[in-house]
Write a structure and sequence with these properties.
By secondary structure, the protein is of the alpha+beta class. It is built from 29 helices and ten strands. The strands form three sheets. The protein has a five-stranded antiparallel sheet, with helices on both faces. A hairpin with a 3-residue loop joins strand 1 and strand 2. Helix 1 runs antiparallel to helix 2 and helix 7 crosses helix 10.
Length: 792
Amino acid sequence: MENRGATPDLLVAALRELRGHSDRDLARLRDLLQLPADGTPETARARTRRLASWRLLLQDVPLDERSFDDRFGPGGRQDTITVLTAWCLGHRERSERHRASHAGLFGFVGLYLLTLLGLAESEAQRSLPQPPPGRGPGGGRALTHDCGAVCGVLVTEAAVADTIAEIHHPRPRPGRRRADAATGPAEREWDAIRGRLAFHRHGSTSLILRGTAAGAVHGTRPEFALKLILYPFTRIPTLTRATREYAETYGTADTGSRHLVRVWASFDSWILMDFIEGRTLAELLREGDDPDASGAAGQALRLRLDRLRENGVLLLDALADLQRVAQEATAHGRLKGVHADLSPSNIIVSDTDGAFQLVDLGRNYLYTHTITGTPGAESSYIAPEVRAGDSEIARADLYSLGRLLITFGTGRADTDGVVPDIFYMRAVQLARFIEDLIDADPARRLVVFGTGTEPSFSYEELKTAFLTELETVRAAENGESELRTETGWRALPGLLRPLSGDPGREWRLWRMHRRQSARPDAHRRPFAHWLLLWAMVSALIWAVTNATVITWLLRDLGLDWGNKLVELVQHVGGGTDGLPIVDSWRHDDYRLPDWRANLPARMVGLSYAIAAPKYYQTLFSGLTPLTIGWRAGGLTRLALATEAVMRVMAVVPCMLVLAVTLVEPRWWPLNSAIGQCLTWLANFLVLAYVRAVITRSRRLGLSTVPGDDGKITGFAALTQWVPTSLFYATAVLTIGTFLYLGILHDVYVYALAVTSTNLFLFYVIKCGIGGPTVRVTMVRTCLAAERVARCR
């Protein structure tokens, strides 16, 4: 591309020769840039031609380092940045006379350097998925250079500021008619802000400057933020048009909005708006990140309900304000009610009142690949339809809302598109709410918390639903605000809670359910009464079975008499020998006390009485596959069978132990085999149901279910449980039958083996260590089943 004698290649070659300050080098650059000789006045036509040439030179800068190096040689961009940085900073040390005579040259070279630094910073930020704390866009510092010593210095130079003012001035360009509606207001605002500028930060496609308006408003001079689009991006017509029309589309001067930054004016390459004193949400989230929560070990999962509530309410208030302004707008092109680029870097937390201020409304064209380059980590907050460039994006901010709620709760960005495990472990109600926001298909957002077939929605209503779900989680967790879950061997302390705290949790959830009876049925927790009933039944039979086995063991040892409770039962029963009623159930050959004969039954019975309720409470309590609904055909029938076997596991294993303890100890090998066969059947049907729901979810395209089985926490473990439980059930059935028939005689060895297997393999390993992750699969499946039922 020719620029009236100055090709980009010649210009870059000349710029890279600026290692010294020779007059010959400077003269060559002056000629390339069409600068007039010292003291020579410049005609208006020459000035117009020079500025047009400068704009073309800046537009022609390659957008990424690879393209720059391919064009100008290996290391081209970095070498050019190094040379220009040294020259610009050195130029400031020269004499006043020298600086005055080369002001125009210094102004353009400084802007060219700012452009290269902005492109390098944009590329670096986008190529770094998760910057470390205190670095990158989250920490407010540049990744590629000392921003304060270079960008901050250059912008304050009068020559650079004048060049910026000339290059970006909204005066009519050749080929554009002056009647452009955006030109007049933009030109007036631009002329009013000319003066001293300060560098503020780098954006993904821009430099953001700040300054103070020349005129006073109500006795004060308001501060402004000036977003300068990096000039190479202005060669993209879509971006240029969106920037030029920004003030018309998103102007909010007369709306009384608290959460939308007031826009003054905009033109092809800049947006002028109020300056908000504060930091971006990305910075605050990065500072609040706890390395231990996502850190080296990766074992602890954490959910901060207090931070989730505070930031979630602020964000929902801001979105409600955005929606209100759109609904009240009457002017053509006014705010459409969708942010479309709702990420932490585009939310400023005001230092004045802590409110969320939404900036940079509209699509980010990095995500749509209109601009070349990788989108970066923050693209995970942007709805898929926005990234795909779809025209219909009315529900795009719902997706971003869900992703941000995840970040608020966990303190870190999540990029895999699904809800993190901690929500399924400790906050199922919030997982259900967030799943309803982040489906990749906008038509499947708010299928639970929406208003049926009505496409519109209200952020105020969503805020009410969010606070309700949050209150429910707090109630379930007994008022805790920070929920931590240890996985792997660190979860062993949880074994001290034999029922995993589920009966109390279900009771609190039921009470909260009653208080929320006025809510729409679709928003309430399904089957709350049914789940409470079975949680209490399981807890009751656990208590009765363990108390019975321990009491009978003490009777075998002759340690029960003198117990006042037993004496009371005997007195009520009208006798003093044994226990009334239950002792009459014993077979004739069942003697008490006889610890030698009864010890195997007591050992095995107690181990089952401990392990079986733990199995039920860890995996099944509080969950039901019936969320699939009654019209899913074969999937409904499978859900009914799975529901039946799950509830059987709450009762039957303990009933088998009670039969051995109260009626006939010789049954323990057979009852052990029955219990193991039931466990295998439960694992088999649960796995079949999980696979069926996952398959149906993927067929429907629900993105809330990972597309790869390996990414579903606990799914691989559940898959392994089926063959291992079948093998163990077969072994127990075979050996138990032989023992009962008297073919085998190593009773104590086998009883000890079954007892140790129940306590260590099932209670500690399966339920204690592996159980929480398998439950994640169960919870995810039940929530997916509810969405499948509503998406058919």
